[in-house]
Amino acid sequence: MKNENLFAALRGAFPARLDDIAVETDNGLCYSWRDLDRASAMMANLLEQLDIPPSSRIAVQVEKSVEAMILYLATLRAGHVFLPLNTAYQSAEIDYFIGNAEPAVVVCTGRNFGWVSTIAFKAGTRHVFTLNDDRTGTLLERAAACSDRHTPAVRRGSDLAAILYTSGTTGRSKGAMLTHDNLHSNAAMLKDYWGWVPGDVLVHALPIFHVHGLFVAIHGALLNGSKMLWHAKFDPKRVMADLQRATVFMGVPTLYVRMLAEPALNKQTTRHMRLFIAGSAPLLIETFQAWQERTGHTILERYGMSETIMLSSNPYRADGRHGGQTERRGGTVGFPLPGVSLRVVDDAGKPLPVDEIGGIQVKGPNVFPGYWRMPEKTAEEFTADGYFKTGDVGKVDARDYVTIVGRSKDLIISGGYNVYPAEIEGYINEMAGVAESAVVGVPHPDFGEVGVAVVIPKPGAQLQADGIIAELKSKLANFKIPKQCFVVNELPRNAMGKVQKNVLRDQHQGMFAGLTKKPS
Ligand code: MCA
Ligand code: AMP
């Protein structure tokens, strides 16, 4: 049987000169291609020694480091399923993910070992390792004793490679299952579509627990045998310094907004660059235009989801359709990618003509097979003819450009992270003295959108907005905390008694307008 393990494809793309530098970090470390190969072999051998079932889930909540990326490669190499978790998640969130996914192995930072291991052992996980961002921890100690040679486990393309938790349209987080084929086919197609060339160098400044930083960026560089300039955290000044020796950059819109606030951003400091790519959240047309004016580069915006990886993209070069009259158009997310079938439908599921607004549905080799252990939810999100309902609302114009105009799912995208109002409302509603709450997203100059909470007290209860925020901070990942909270007597409702979130959004939408962009 041909080995369709994604790792085999990534390893096959390593350059012949294995001692060349593959990754250079912002704290002065260099990793060769040989280092990536040997270290991933050692970790894969460690996983094999643990005597865990094939295709076990390996849950990982660690700070960004090259070793964390190597752990991802080792998980693929050993034929297991990688389950990355946002470092901001706190105990209630981690408890849910570990309980739901039942990982055979959990890897966390040494600082969190106490509480994470308590949760993991309770859920039946037998192996908990630590991995810190300074190359210490029990994972590396144990792997150091393992052989640096390893033959990749044989996997079918339809076998699972990763699970990414996302809340999808409603309710509790669901694990989007992604196969080796989903990831490999999307990465291979993007290598071509975005015109990767020998000698490209990628500045990697995104977190590696979501699709954008983990798959789109890392697979892009590895499949092209390209060097990565690795930033543990996004710092606009340090990233801009590296742009002068790089060719490709990928970021969420907040990263572009923050770089625009730097006076040093200009045509000269970006002259070495070939391509700037944006996605994960809407890129404002003013950001797109300001970037063009300041740097002379036109940002290429693309659209994706955890369930589908990349779906559509503006063209890298005029791609021949419409007589070659194709350009990167701000405010659009470009064309459905090769192999992706994208349609816009009305509420009854009937496909709509050009320029009409409706729900976006997609089909293709990139689309996930379903949610982990949730067959009913999976069935709800697919149509009878196999299209996945994205929950995004948009249109396709006569030239095939896709524009996203909104979302039917109640979701806030803040600095590229997803925040589900229903989850935050659930936590607020459990607090003493709270009768009801509503969380809405409003525009924000730095994060694009942020949450605002409106809370109704029970009769006679005295609630303080600060107290509500403080209690949320003790329980939830920091990026989910509403940036403002109001205690009021009633919520706007329609004739059916349903809370009118659009009215709340209108009331509060100018709230952050006066803020300047975050100073660096
Ligand atoms: C940090 N804070 C935030 C966010 N990030 N608040 C709202 N939204 C955020 N995204 C708050 C913290 O709670 C904290 O507040 C304060 O900002 C400082 O935290 P810090 O961690 O220092 O922030 P930062 O380093 O400035 O981070 C901002 C960031 C980061 C660099 C924009 O959020 C980021 O890396 N975002 C990228 C997300 C991403 O990769 N998304 C891709 C998803 P306090 O002090 O009050 O606690 S993949 C995806 O969507 C799909 C599939 C796709 O298409 O790509
Ligand atoms: P996630 O659940 O993290 O995979 O986020 C996926 C969602 O991010 C999509 O359903 C869209 O709502 C949003 N998204 C991704 N890229 C873009 C983009 N370029 N413009 C607007 N929204 C985007």
Helix and strand arrangement:
Layout: H1 6-12, E1 21-25, E2 30-32, H2 33-49, E3 57-61, H3 66-77, E4 81-84, H4 91-101, E5 105-108, H5 113-122, E6 127-130, H6 138-143, E7 160-166, E8 174-179, H7 180-193, E9 201-204, H8 211-223, E10 227-230, H9 236-243, E11 248-251, H10 253-260, E12 275-278, H11 285-295, E13 300-305, E14 309-313, E15 335-336, E16 341-345, E17 358-363, E18 370-371, H12 375-381, E19 388-396, E20 402-407, E21 412-414, E22 417-419, H13 421-429, E23 434-444, E24 448-457, H14 465-473, E25 484-487, H15 501-508
Parallel strand pairs: 1-10, 3-4, 3-5, 5-6, 9-10, 9-11, 11-12, 12-13, 24-25
Antiparallel strand pairs: 1-2, 7-8, 8-18, 13-14, 14-15, 16-17, 17-19, 19-20, 21-22, 23-24
Helix pairs in contact: 2-3, 4-5, 7-8, 10-11
The protein binds methylmalonyl-coenzyme A (MCA) and adenosine monophosphate.
